[in-house]
Amino acid sequence: MEDKSVCQLVRDPENVQRLFIHLEDGTIVGPYLVMSVERIGLRIGNVCDERVQELLRIEDATHQAIEDAVVYVKRKARTEAEVLQFLVKQKNYTPTIALEALAWLRKYQAINDGELISTTVSAAQKTVNTPSKMALTAKLLRRGVTKDQIIKALQVSEYDEFRGALQAGRKKLEQIERKLEHEELPPEERERKLKTILGAFLGRKGYSASTIHKVFDQLLG
């Protein structure tokens, strides 16, 4: 039976972060990351068979996945779902390894869905064209966070969509009035038509009925 015991650990001359493993039977395997070898506790005299080598490959892949994940979240704030999709779909890591990398990001506070949601909601609230709660919720849902997390953030921030609705409504009202200026309509019919068109426009943008009525009160008296 061939002896798969480790007789020597040799640094890769092209990458000092990796080791070649020399076995008693003359086989040389690797190179594997030094941290992977250390993590599984492999020493001279230990057996390094296929099972051990597979563990080393998994450790190497996990470390690489962590590095890829760190670079990915440094470019832009990401949700956990986006990180998992990136690692599995674009980098071809197994779901298990991707989850290990995500756990590392959580441990070292490199990712936080709650914080990202709060930041997104706060930024949206400060814009002139404040999006509707529905539109903002849909945007965040597409990023893989849960609806409960979004609702909580909206409540905590006391999110007010009125400013954005008023801004959008004012621009749209100008367009509607230009189209109706050549139509001879009774005042009541004109107001009804304005409200119908404007309300449908704001509704498509996701603004609530109560917000739309506040816009009517502000713009149409």
From TrEMBL:
Segments spanning the bilayer are: none
Q: Which UniProt keywords apply?
A: Cytoplasm
Instruction: Tell me the Gene Ontology biological-process terms attached to this UniProt entry.
Output: regulation of DNA repair
**What InterPro entries does the entry give?**
Regulatory_RecX (IPR003783), WH-like_DNA-bd_sf (IPR036388)
The answer to whether UniProt assigns keyword GTP-binding to this entry is no
Q: Which domain of life is it from?
A: Bacteria
- What does UniProt give as GO cellular component? cytoplasm
Family statement drawn from the similarity comment of this UniProt entry: Belongs to the RecX family.
Name of the protein in its database record: Regulatory protein RecX
Source organism (scientific name): Sulfoacidibacillus ferrooxidans
Gene name linked to the record: recX
